[in-house]
Amino acid sequence: MANKERFFAEIEQALKQVLPKDKQYIALHEPTFAGKEWEYVKDCLDTGWVSSVGKYVDKFEADLAEFTGVKRAVAVVNGTAALHICLLLVGVKAEDEVLMPALTFIATANAVSYCRAVPHFIDSDFTTLGVDAQKLDEYLTKIAEIRAGECYNKLTNRRIKAVVPMHTFGHPVNLTALENICQKYKLELVEDAAESLGSYYKGQHTGNCGKVAALSFNGNKTITTGGGGAILTNDLELGTLAKHLTTTAKLAHRWEFRHDQVAYNYRLPNLNAALGCAQLEQLPGFLQKKRLLADNYQAALANIKGVEFFKEPADCKSNYWLNAILLDKEFAPYRDELLAYLNEHGLMCRPVWNLMYTLPMYANCPKMDCAQAEDIARRLINIPSGSSLI
Ligand SMILES: *Cc1c(COP(=O)(O)O)cnc(C)c1O
Questions:
Q1: N or C: which end of the chain has fewer CB within 10 A?
Q2: Is 155 left (phi over 0), alpha (psi -120 to 50) or beta?
């Protein structure tokens, strides 16, 4: 292609026009520690409260619940663990099928596997990059049937228990349509909100829609605790159960070690929660900067033919966790060359995840036609997105 080199250089220049000029290399998403991180972490060390309980764990949970508008937040060791417990909480059992996007990070599928359940992959759409609700509805009409109030896959004879939409790069999926599908087919809705802290669907923070939702505070997310996650719920009983299941199911007692079921040590250490409290204080500022960065990218890329900056869906306010560009079909075959070019020119850029069913352990799982997810995966590139870049 004759104008390929020019196309690559145009994109490089557009990105560099937006990004800081004084850096040799710009990472995809670096954390920012500009608040009280040192003070709170030092307090943990000074007082000896570094481990699995402490005031920062309690404060982080309370602050998270307040920010997201849920009744209860339970802090855990990472986002994958949060998803695992969410699935158990809605009753996912061995041999159940769980509907989830083929286009997601591996954690969504792994959490389903930890329950000895089977991921069932669904397509994504171009307006949200998440689950295509309409296509899912049409698909379920064909393959699902309700038996005694529960949904079954007619083809595999397995129960379909839940659907786990994921808010890709912080862009909320069509939750209203998914809620309707869940009602119609007797499914539980579990939001994988790992990427969407600070993202709103029709004015409500993501993670409020189903019974439970999962957040992640990994090092590359909008705020970080080093590693960490949280379970969100508006059902106080489920919240109590979430805490119980993630803290070895120990019954409260002055000295006795009584546990009433096999459970998990998924606690977030106080040290990490201290970091989380300081990060959460800065979240509104991070979100403002990320939105400005996205606006600047959009403006800078607007006049380049062959590439489109991905904007938040209608009725949504995204956190713009990771900014994304989509190449036009004619440039799709050069995605890897463009990735190499940008990375060689000091800009850390990445493709989206490999679709789950292309990975060996998930190759034989049930799936619908995922033509749109395949198209997105061929054409999407993530560009530097940290809140310190502006
Ligand atoms: C980050 C992430 C998770 C959780 O990851 P952890 O590293 O376990 O915190 C889950 N799902 C998605 C889509 C993610 O991006």
A1: N
A2: alpha
Q: What's the rounded Cα separation, in Å, for the pair 291 and 318?
A: 8
Asked if 228 and 52 touch (Cβ cutoff 8 Å), the reply is: no
Provide the angle, in degrees to the nearest 10, between the axes of the packed helices 4-18 and 270-301: 120
Count of CB atoms situated within 10 Å of the CB of 372:
17
- Rounded to the nearest whole angstrom, what is the distance from the C-alpha of residue 80 to the centroid of ligand 1? 6
Does residue 79 have its Cβ closer than 6 Å to ligand 1?
yes
Q: Ligand 1 in contact with 191 (CB < 6 A)?
A: no
Question: Going by CA atoms, what residue is nearest to atom 2 of ligand 1?
Answer: 194
Record: fold of 37-281: Aspartate Aminotransferase; domain 2 (3.40.640)
By C-alpha distance, which of 123, 149, 230, 137 is closest to 179?
A: 137
pLDDT greater than 70 at residue 119: yes
Q: What is the pLDDT of residues 140-197, one digit of tens each?
A: 999 999 999 999 999 999 999 999 999 999 999 999 999 999 999 999 999 999 999 9
Pocket of ligand 1, candidates 195, 217, 354, 356: which has the most ligand atoms within 8 Å of its Cβ, to mutate?
A: 195
Q: Is the pTM of this model over 0.85?
A: yes
335 in the Ramachandran plot: left (φ > 0), alpha (ψ -120 to 50) or beta? Answer: alpha
The pLDDT of residue 1 is 55
Report how far ligand 1's centroid is from the alpha carbon of 194 (Å): 5
Instruction: Let me know: does 165 contact 101? Beta carbons within 8 Å.
Output: yes
Q: Which of 207, 290, 270, 307 is nearest to 32 (CA)?
A: 290
Q: Is the CB of 194 under 6 A from ligand 1?
A: yes
Q: Is 78 in the pocket of ligand 1 (CB under 6 A)?
A: yes
pLDDT in tens, 186-242: 999 999 999 999 999 999 999 999 999 999 999 999 999 999 999 999 999 999 999
Q: Ligand 1 pocket check: which of 216, 223, 268, 275 to mutate, most ligand atoms within 8 Å of Cβ?
A: 216
What is the spatial distance between Cα 212 and Cα 87, in angstroms, rounded to a whole number? 8
